[in-house]
Design brief:
Layout (H helix, E strand, L loop, with lengths): L3 E2 L8 E2 L2 E2 H4 L4 E2 L5 E6 L3 E6 L8 E5 L3 E3 L12 H13 L3 H8 L7 H5 L6 H8 L1 E3 L2 E4 L7 E2 L5 E6 L4 E6 L10 E2 L8 H8 L15 H23 L9 H23 L6 H13 L4 H18 L4 H28 L1
Parallel strand pairs: 11-14
Antiparallel strand pairs: 1-4, 2-3, 5-6, 7-13, 8-10, 9-10, 12-13
Helix pairs in contact: 2-5, 7-8, 8-9, 9-10, 10-11
The protein binds S-adenosylmethionine.
């Protein structure tokens, strides 16, 4: 995605009051690259922004070099890699020579057993150190694979099932020269738990969330635990029915208030991987107390995130329908109120 120009960019900007690129037959095609790969201190290679990137901007849209559907997932442990080595190898064997070279150029972390092995396999460690889980599948995306990990990352990703592409987008503003970061692991875990999970990548995270002083780190750990618990509590009874009883209404109001609190802490903790889900929870929780403007605004925020990856995914369509329905309910409410006045 780099710019190609038919002649060098003129060094003198203005020639007889005419911008020099207009006075010559000058044109460029392609979009300016917004990132570059270079060394990142203590982390090997990394991806850096070459200009400021606004939140919501799609940075990568990449098809997997290798995509596998492992048979069995063990929660908290992951996939038994021995069982899937064959799947990885078969997918790799089917690649072109260039694509194979691109995969083999990626960085791998080897376990001590792998290091000691006389004829060590390189493909599985490369896959383990670079691949992403998206639902029931694991994909290796050679360009995205250069992004280093952060526990409060500035990018997040979604899988576009229709196009078969991984979409990486900016979850907050990224300044020119800033390194892109992404999370390799689920972030609703304490610092200690995250450290254990990152072990398979062979590094200890020194990101701003991990480098906090003890008190602040404890507070961040507690917030992450609270968020995880709140997700469980909300998801178990997230329906759109508006309660009729007084006690039901009271409970729904408490839930709506709690959903606002949840939005606040997820945003404070900058856990962008969860934004779309918490906005959906807040939207539905507000619809249950017929707080339509808030419900519509949260539904729209969730919709906008899902839309970046795929305009036709189930989630995008659900949030689009909820947004429209909440706006319609708000209009009906205003119309009824106006009629009551007449
Ligand atoms: C998916 S690759 C990322 C790109 C890699 N730095 C490279 O040079 O190709 C994962 C590897 O990068 C390094 N890495 C990623 N995030 C890191 C971090 N936050 N701190 C230190 N090393 C990191 C580790 O060696 C890890 O096994």
């Amino acid at each position: 995605s780099s710019v190609t120009c038919n002649s060098p960019i003129p060094s003198s900007q203005y020639l007889h009051d005419i911008p020099s690129w207009q006075s010559q037959n000058f044109s460029c095609t392609g979009s300016p690259a917004i990132h570059t790969i270079r060394n990142s201190l203590g982390k090997g290679l990394g991806v850096f922004a070459t200009r400021a990137i606004e939140p919501g901007m799609v940075i990568f849209h990449e098809a997997p070099a290798i995509l596998i559907h492992p048979p069995e997932f063990r929660d908290g442990v992951g996939y038994p890699l021995s069982g899937i080595a064959q799947l990885i190898q078969s997918a790799f064997d089917a690649l072109s020579a260039d694509r194979k070279a691109e995969v083999m150029s990626l960085t791998a972390h080897y376990t001590s057993a792998e290091k000691a092995s006389p004829n060590r396999d390189e493909l599985v460690p490369i896959f383990r150190s670079n691949a992403y889980n998206s639902g029931q599948q694991i994909g290796l995306y050679p360009k995205i694979a250069r992004i280093n990990h952060g526990c409060r990352p500035n990018t997040s990703y979604l899988w576009n099932a229709r196009l078969g592409k991984q979409v990486v987008y900016a979850s907050r503003r990224i300044e020119e020269g800033e390194e892109l970061s992404i999370s390799y692991i689920p972030l609703l875990h304490t610092h200690e738990e995250r450290e254990k999970r990152l072990d398979q990548y062979g590094f200890k995270c020194t990101c701003e969330a991990c480098a906090l002083e003890k008190d602040e780190k404890d507070a961040s750990d507690q917030r992450r635990k609270d968020i995880r618990q709140a997700f469980t509590d909300f998801n178990s009874h997230l329906t759109l029915t508006v309660p009729q009883s007084k006690s039901g209404k009271k409970r729904a109001q408490e839930k709506a208030d709690a959903s606002l609190q949840l939005v606040k802490i997820v945003e404070e903790e900058e856990l962008a991987d969860y934004y779309a889900q918490i906005y959906r929870i807040a939207a539905i929780s507000h619809a249950k107390v017929e707080a339509w403007p808030a419900a519509a605004q949260f539904a729209l925020k969730s919709y906008q995130i899902y839309l970046m990856a795929d305009e036709q995914s189930e989630q995008t369509i659900e949030m689009q329908m909820l947004t429209s329905s909440f706006i319609e309910s708000w209009n009906n409410h205003l119309r009824n109120k106006a009629m009551q006045k007449d």
